[in-house]
Design brief:
Blueprint (H helix, E strand, L loop, with lengths): L7 E7 L5 E4 L5 E2 L11 H12 L5 E12 L2 E4 L2 H7 L14
Antiparallel strand pairs: 1-2, 1-4, 2-3, 4-5
Length: 99
Amino acid sequence: MSRPFGHKIVTASDLLKGDVIYLTADDRWSRQLDEAELITDEAHAQLRLLLAERQQDHIVGPYLAEVRPGPRGPEPAHFREAFRATGPSNYAHGKQTDL
């Protein structure tokens, strides 16, 4: 028996800067998780992932990540995504300065 399709986002890494980025509903890439498009339909998720995979000149390693809806947008549903959302762990600048 397969698991039901949960809430997903499309995430990748910026090819030049290496930052974690998220695909928005208006086809932009954002460094803010709460701006990511919250996807609830499996077919739509596959189409969005295909769109991301065609952007090899801007991104690397796109995949669907499981999230849960939150009051300000998608929130990580797994430790890995929570860790990625905070930025590199060995720098005290960038996203981590806001934590």
